[in-house]
Structure formats: structure tokens, C-alpha cells
Amino acid sequence: MNDTVLVTGGAGFIGSNFVLNWIAKTKANVVNLDLLTYAGNRKNLLAIENDPRHVFIKGDICDGVLVASLLEGHRPRAILHFAAESHVDRSIAGPDAFVETNIVGTFSLLEQVKSYWDALPPGDKAAFRFLHVSTDEVYGTLGPDDPAFTEDTAYTPNSPYAASKASSDHLVRAYFHTYGLPVLTTNCSNNYGPFQFPEKLIPLVILNALEGKPLPVYGDGLNVRDWLFVEDHCAAIRLVLERGRIGETYNIGGSSERKNIDVVTAICDILDELRTDPVLGSHRELIRYVKDRPGRYRCCKSDKVISRRPCGVCNTSQSVSPWNCHVSRETSQTSFLGRACGGMDYRR
Fold first, then answer.
1. DSSP labels for 42-66?
2. Which of 139, 161, 250, 346 is catalytic?
């Protein structure tokens, strides 16, 4: 087994940020498997295009022959499974792709990984990990005074997207309890940051505002989300991979709950300072309230910390904060904000 990890979905938003951070912060190799659907883009990976430690393969996690050949050829010590369809609106309009990728794709990947893991020598089997990246939307919605989701919150998915991710979570859990596959699962809150596809709220608002287009806000704008900077998320995933107890689930939250309308108006105010528009006046004038979508979550928030469960090298249940991962959070977010409001880091 080599000092190599196999990342699925590594040209998408969170996956590409993870790959870039992994190459920057470790000496290990990355095999990056991505089908390059609409949300995947190899340009996200331009910074490591010539790095010999990064191998990009265009392919489908449902292709068992391809996955088996990659496992046998590269002998990874870990799988980090990011590949997923992830937009709620798209899942409502066309759930088929979500079932195929998130459920069937995860099943197919687990089957190939199990076969690979079964054949490893005892020492390598003990060191191997399969880390499944999921979402807190599997837990459903919260009332305004409800406590944050924990790893023990019951699953109550309300959209085809959330249901497909819940199904994949259950498959991963089953392969641990049935076959002993050493799995880890993370459930994160709403991510934002570089390379996010502009169908999501923050990049959509920034790009529309820069172009003087309407800023759509669902319903009354009072839906609440917990926002997590993607580089903090990546640091937390690395920590769970290194220290997590096999078979456990770890919630990753940003401790930054905001109403959607507050996020939108904050972006407008920042743009008013950075890019004065004498004709428009305030960018808030572009805000338009639109009909809420079916199955909408009123409030989602995960634990403030990575998890209230102990990690593998810890002897107590003391919470582990994502800032213990030595993330320069303030610097990285400030840099990102300046680029984003100039139209960089996002694409149409």
C-alpha cells in the first residue's frame, strides 16, 4: 500500500479545494477521479496541473472496472469520497441523477473498495480508511429555538437530494457493521468559498450583483443556514482521516448561523463599498423575493465544533475545534472575499 489517497469528485467545489489543500500541506500523492459533470472543472486544479503527485482520471464511480484498476494500480491507503450530485433544486426537477450517483455510485464504489481491502495484508488492512463526505441536510430541518444537529440526530431528509445522501450514509455504515470496512463519515453544514458553482446562494448573489441582475431570495428570506468556509471543512476532513475512530460519524459545522436575507444584504453592502454604482445606488435594490421551493429547510445548523465525539488519539470526549487544525481562517477568508467580489473564483 502506497502513501497515496484516491479522491472521488476532486474537480468539484469541495473536492478540488481538498485536493489543492492536500497537495499543499502533505507529501502524499493524490489520484483524482471525477466524471467532469456540469459542476466539475479541471480549471479548479490549474495550480497543481504539473505536480507529479497529482494524477487526474476522468471517469465514473459507477464504472467498477475502472475503479478496480485504479485501486490495484495505485494501491491507495485511503479513499475520500466527495463525488455527489448536490443541488436541492436540481434534485426536485430531476431526482434520477441523484439516485444514480449518490446511491448507486456509492454502492458500486464500496463494492470495489471492499474487494481491494479484503486482499490487503493485515497491517495495510488495519491502516486503510474510507472517508465518506456527506451533508447535515440528512437530518432535516430545525425550529428557531431547537438545538443544533448532533451525530445522534435522527435522519429526516426532506428532498430527493437529502434522501439520496442519507441512503449513501446508510450504505457506508452497513459496510462497516456487516463487513468490517474501516469507514468514517462526515456531515457538514453549508460550504462557501473558491470554485463554488454559481447556482448556490453566495456565488449567485455576488455574480448577479456584479452584473446588475436580480438577486433572488427564497420565501421571506428568513431561512437559516450554518455557513462553513470550505478550507476549514477541508482541514476538518484531514483531521478526521488522521484521528477519527472507524465506524463513527463526525458533524462539521461553522458556528456561523445566518438568515439568507442577512447573507444577501451583507454581500450587497460589501459590494457598495468596493464597487460604487452611481446609477443603481445600493445593490440591495436588486433583491427580489421569489416563491420558496418544495421541501425547503427552515433552519439547518450543526454542532459548533467538528464533533462532540472523541477522535481516535484522544482519551477524552473534549470537543475538537476546527481552528486546532492550524487554519489561518481570517486571512484565507479575507483573501477569498476580495477575489470573489472582483468576480474571481467563480464562473458561469
1. GGGGGGGTT-TTEEEEE--TT-HHH
2. 161
Which residue segment(s) compose the domain that 157 sits in? 4-195+228-255+301-325
Question: Quick check: helix, strand or coil at residue 29?
Answer: strand
Partnered with residue 133 across adjacent β-strands are: 186
pLDDT digits (tens, 9 = 90+) for 56-83: 999 999 999 999 999 999 999 999 999 9
Angle (CA) 34 38 42, round 5°:
50
d(CA 213, CA 29): 43
Does residue 128 sit within a domain?
Answer: yes
Instruction: Look up the CATH number of the domain holding residue 164.
Output: 3.40.50.720
Query: What tens digit of pLDDT does each residue of 166-223 get?
Result: 999 999 999 999 999 999 999 999 999 999 988 888 999 999 999 999 999 988 888 8
Run of H or E residues at 268: helix 260-274
- Tell me, yes or no, if 136 is annotated catalytic: yes
Global pTM reads 0.85
Q: Would you say residue 285 lies in a domain?
A: no
Domains of the chain: total: 1
Q: Is 272 a catalytic residue?
A: no
- Whether 58 maps to a domain, the answer reads yes
Catalytic one among 136, 226, 232, 303?
Answer: 136
Q: Which of 34, 60, 137, 231 is catalytic?
A: 137
Contact 267/206 with Cβ under 8 angstroms? yes
273 falls within a domain: no
The answer to whether 34 is a known catalytic residue is: no
